[in-house]
Design brief:
Helix content is 21%, strand content 30%. The chain has 176 residues and is an alpha+beta fold. Strands 1-2-3-6-7 form a 5-stranded antiparallel β-sheet. The protein has a 3-stranded antiparallel β-sheet with strand order 4-5-8. A hairpin with a 7-residue loop joins β4 and β5 (105-112). Bound molecules: nickel (II) ion (NI).
């Protein structure tokens, strides 16, 4: 296993559509997943997509600590291969996001509150479920990475793109 270098905004791989994985149980994908796990643990983030470690394959990894989950239940490290998301209704919520590929910044991003997801797991088995709130937000953020989309592209108002260490002053200035 290895901690991989994280691509940062400006690197072309973050703007390319990633390719579907033909064989989720291949040694190559197994190695990628092991390295992504180690890289995500090292980063302290809640999600990582393969293009963020310079690999153009449709693989994401998410893990959500209990304190950030809407239902207070932690989501352990979950690998989704060739993930597909479908909004479950029209409800959209706006909240802060950051990205390991855009270090130091935070932005207000609208996302669907509830999504259905389907994917393959590491053994190639079809898996599916529903997610809401922060979990749904993280899934939408990571699947966007597979399509070359960054959270800043989803922001309707770039005046809400701020350095993390300025977040407090931004909030103190009152509602937009
Ligand atoms: Ni990201």
């Amino acid at each position: 296993m290895a901690i991989l270098k994280i691509s940062r905004m400006g690197h072309p791989i973050l703007r390319q559509a990633a390719m579907p994985v033909a064989d989720p149980s291949s040694p190559e994908i197994g190695r990628l997943i092991a390295d992504m796990r180690e890289t995500l643990r090292d980063s302290g983030g809640v999600g990582l997509a393969a293009p963020q470690v310079h690999v153009g394959s449709r693989v994401i990894l998410v893990q959500i600590p209990a304190e950030r989950a809407d239902d207070g239940r932690a989501l352990g490290e979950t690998v989704l291969i060739n993930p597909v998301l479908v909004p479950l209704d029209d409800e959209v919520v706006v909240d802060w996001e950051g990205c390991l590929s855009i270090p130091g910044l935070r932005g207000l991003v609208p996302r669907y509150r509830r999504v259905g997801w389907s994917a393959l797991d590491e053994t190639g088995r079809a898996v599916a479920g529903e997610a809401e709130g922060f979990h749904a937000r993280v899934l939408q953020h990571e699947v966007d990475h597979l399509d070359g989309v960054l959270y800043v592209d989803r922001m309707p108002d770039l005046s809400a793109l701020v350095f993390q260490d300025q977040l407090r002053s931004f909030m103190a200035a009152g509602p937009e």
